[in-house]
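Record minuted for everyone:
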Amino acid sequence: MKRYGCVHLFLLVLFTRETSLTAMQSLTLRGEIADAAGAPLQGDLTVVTGGKNVASWSLQTNSIGTFSFQVPEGTPLTVVAKANGYLSAEISVVAQTDAPALHFRLSMAGRVSGRVIDEMGKGIPDAQLAIRYVEESRAVEFSQEIADVATDDFGYFTFTSVARNRPFTIDVADSSHPLVASPVMTLDRDSLIGVLVTVHETGQVVRGRVLDAYGQPLSNIRVHMNWRPESRSNSRRRELDMSVLHIYERSRSTTTRSDGSFEFRGVAEGVVIVNATNCGRPVSARGELTANTPFEATLTLSCVAAR
């Protein structure tokens, strides 16, 4: 199944550390990582600085969980701490002489497993899944904690880094259904098994043909579809647009068949743009997809000969 790079790293655009560390006066920030009971943990930290330039770098604690690093005075930054078997945590602070020490208390990670099925009870394979916490958001999210999970051939899945006592939903996307969400759940113990997510909707169809200037079909032409929710979409759609998986729906691509046709199935209601490249420039068609009306388009590429 195709993977989308936007969720394989934490969800920020980051550059190199050197771009932001100037000749300003540097301050040393110190802190520690410990578990919920205060026992020290050896772990890793990611430092994300703000200002005119955005930068990030990583460092490790020593054997007793303490750390220190230098940043220019006045720098706003977010520090994210993580350790094996624990949920990461973040602290945002501005580097000042009176800045407090950074004390991290990490909670044990929990496991959530279950299955994604259709209305007939059949498992849906190769669906992309993401955890979405409904009451709070983070400045920095790691894909191994919220995404990078797919169902197996029978629709089964497992999340291994779920926060406890934080309401969450599981967002599901695959190539035949629109993005859907599970009911809100809360993990209040080590693991939650047997979660069942049923995909009720089949979505709508976006289809069309690619022709040359003489009206002849063009095969093996790459067609891209971009999608965005319509402003009058329902509340569930607006909530799902917050998911990291909204990228899955926002951009898809396929190639035309021998008769020049193309098709995207399981597309949610919203605004759709399909395009193909003609002489280095896109030829596109735009329309609104509703529950009752599919979207069809014909793209004419004047400088591509029929094959």
Observations:
- Helices lie at 143-146, 235-240, 246-250.
